[in-house]
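Protocol step 4 of 5: obtain the predicted structure for the target chain.
Materials: sequence only (see below). No template structures provided, no constraints applied. The aim of this step is simply to have a reference model before the mutagenesis design in step 5. Sequence pasted as it appears in the construct record:
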Amino acid sequence: MRRWFAGLGLASLVVTAALAAEPVVAIPTARAARVDRVPLDQLPATVKLPLEGTAVVVTPLGGIALEVLVREGDTVKRGQVFARLQSREAMTLAADLSAAQGAYRVAAAQAGRDEQLLKEGIVPESRLQASVASRDATAARVRELQAARAWAPAASGSGMGVYELRAPMDGRVIERAMQPGGTYDALAKAFVVVAGQRVMLELRVPASFATQVRRGQEVRTREGAIAKVSETGGALDVASQTVLVRAEGEAGSLLPGMQTSATLWLPAPQDAVSVPSGALLGEGGAALVFMRTATGFRAVDVTVLARDGESRRTVRGGLKHGDEVATGMLDTLRARTSTEGQ
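Step 4 output (structure tokens):
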């Protein structure tokens, strides 16, 4: 009987010791998830005007600004008057056009007469050629002056030599370079108009990632604006070892000239997976995860590629989609695996 109780006591000690070897609390785990893209974040970005849908309004003729009728931020319609200017050239434009039209009528009539006289054998062909050349030259001059008149339309009821600047399209005035009373040369920039609410971002991407950038990839600024890559630079900036990438999208709260930062989404390597940030043990690009196996947990070295939102990280290494990794008690697991390795 004593031997039976002694044996029972020994068995109890063995069971107790076995229970003590296992953690009282179950180790939490999560599955490694497949990822299709990797964020390249904290890229410096400058907000610029988009290439498409941007129009610069210039002064076709030199003059003085009598009235400026729109402000920055105004929404305008095509043909709306921006400003009225008085110009010495505009004063003579109507007279020059009238004179050119008269000269064309004379030259056209002369060419018609010479063509008839050539048919009758009265004048040589060279005379007709000269008449036709004169007619064509005066016609070109008329077209030139008509285009100038259309580009600088006269302001009705505003006096001699006053013409108007008008909106070339529907849009929003984002820059006004003209002031009332200012004197401006021909082809001076007066206004900038943008159709819609779009901007262009200029990003500086490290040269090591340049070959992975493609048109259409997503870019997201820290303000939440979303754009798509529209241009991929091929020239390396030696000082910064970066290439220029441009993306266009909705402006949101972004304004031209603003400095911000952005995230560019690149294709993920085939062996990249996403794991909870709590599954990583270590700092920087190198870390450990503990993968569940049939006999327990095994330490696996991984390289951290990027943040995947606030609570996950994209890694590559000895993990694949669906592997189960520990998300807690990592120090305990490291101590256990170190002991087992001794």
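Step 4 remarks: The CA atoms of residues 78 and 169 lie 4 Å apart. Residues 1-24 have pLDDT under 50 and may be disordered.
Proceed to step 5.
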